[in-house]
Amino acid sequence: MKTEFPFPDHIGSRQELIRDIHYHKIPQEDISHIADRAWDTGAAAASDILDKYPGKSIWEVIKQEGLKVIKVDKDNVIGGMRCFSGYYSGRKTITLYLKSVKMWAAENRVSLKYGEELILAHEFFHHLECSVLGLTSSQYKVPRLTIGRWKIGKSGIRALSEIGAHGFSRTFYAAGRHFDIVYNANVDE
Prior knowledge:
Blueprint: H1 15-18, H2 28-52, H3 58-64, E1 68-72, E2 76-78, E3 81-83, E4 85-88, E5 93-97, H4 98-107, H5 112-133, E6 141-147, E7 150-156, H6 158-174, H7 177-183
Parallel strand pairs: 1-5
Antiparallel strand pairs: 2-3, 4-5, 6-7
């Protein structure tokens, strides 16, 4: 039996915006446009990577790009939120928190191996943002502070980076064999 893909699809990814601290500052008429633009950024980046590294797994791509993956045997919960991984641009490092990833993989009915792979694809997009693309969160800005008619400073929408990462991961795995590997994975692998 196939499970649902563990990351939201194009439309479902818009829910990321609702959780963003600046969501209330985004005019409703801009929501779809900015979410679609972020998704398209991720999808286009995945297409470029698939062209650059045809038939390669995300592990192989990461190695070719000179990134390091560190696995930490920890359930990483910060402020009540479970964090599965993190990308550190200055160190070109992705950290996977294995106990957190294992729980996520089990909940989504994929093996740990493919859970790691999906999360790595997500984090690899953040690497591309920092090294090639520019931050997707900066594609749309809202005032940092509004006092009456004065608007002070500007802030990007962090959720847009997450939407872009979802677009990257879905596109990377929907393109050929990667999709079948994840969907047909034995959870016990």
